[in-house]
């Protein structure tokens, strides 16, 4: 009989998953994915189970990476909660399998994996696509992704100013108190965005919050929210004017309201830029539309498990 899977907690994932290890693994797997060698990376489109009664969704995200022999599946629930709800918006678990025997080796917290790997992928997009001189970072939203993005962006880059905007000013003020360095709390999206070189959108908005008319020409936007085909964070002007990069063409064309409803065309996947088969047009305004991928969770889970084994 198979051994029982090990359980790896949120705290352990937080301790074991470090950006320095994670970023090269993500770059490598994004590059592999964009080669479209179906025997190398298998990642079906995310299956979504709508939970209409609760204004929520369950996403199923399996992936197999042959070269590294990683088989994993994340299950993530996400809800549009009202403002005063104390319940979390996202919760996830990742199952890591033994691909040869088919048994589950580990069940681990996937919420921290989701927070860290998403932010790390946005940091990769910024490394590749942001303008050469970047001084101002702007974060729209002040939730979990805002914090993980702040952490990796301040670790990887140095900005003269970091701005945050949130629908409720007190949440933005709380964010500014919680993080390590100085943050300018902005009263409007326009105030936060104007003059920013890198803009991160990490909101639960269903309608555009970021308008193209406020965005400095040449800025880079990492658009992380709006992961349903009828949800938006960015307006048509921005989507149509910018050079649009995505994590997966199939994912973005199926799930991203910003892409589907604006009719914007996708210029490249991040993996194609990593592979050198598509250029990074840093001199132009760029949008990286992130939806999240099972392969990102799979490499993260493997890193966590390998470290856990060496430290147990
Ligand atoms: N691309 C990817 O791989 C992933 C994307 N996400 C998305 O990132 C976004 C942020 O996620 P979390 O930080 O975990 O959520 P969270 O619930 O911790 O934070 C959400 C933030 O959005 C704000 N917000 C809610 N409704 C809004 C509205 N109508 N207009 C403007 N702001 C609004 C909230 O005030 C809060 O600041 C979500 O859209 C989520 O689905 C999450 C995980 C992975
Ligand atoms: O990749 C992911 O885990 C998610 N993307 C949008 C909601 C959750």
TrEMBL record:
It catalyses: (3R)-1,4-thiomorpholine-3-carboxylate + NAD(+) = 3,4-dehydrothiomorpholine-3-carboxylate + NADH + 2 H(+); Delta(2)-thiazoline-2-carboxylate + NADPH + 2 H(+) = L-thiazolidine-2-carboxylate + NADP(+); (3R)-1,4-thiomorpholine-3-carboxylate + NADP(+) = 3,4-dehydrothiomorpholine-3-carboxylate + NADPH + 2 H(+); (R)-lanthionine ketimine + NADPH + 2 H(+) = (3R,5R)-1,4-thiomorpholine-3,5-dicarboxylate + NADP(+). It comes from the Eukaryota. One of its GO terms (biological process) is thyroid hormone metabolic process. One of its GO terms (molecular function) is pyrroline-2-carboxylate reductase activity. It holds the Pfam family OCD_Mu_crystall. GO terms for cellular component: cytoplasm. Coiled coil: none annotated. Its EC number is 1.5.1.1, 1.5.1.25. Belongs to the ornithine cyclodeaminase/mu-crystallin family. Homodimer. Binds the thyroid hormone triiodothyronine (T3); T3 binding inhibits enzymatic activity. PANTHER family: KETIMINE REDUCTASE MU-CRYSTALLIN. This is Ketimine reductase mu-crystallin. It comes from Aldrovandia affinis.
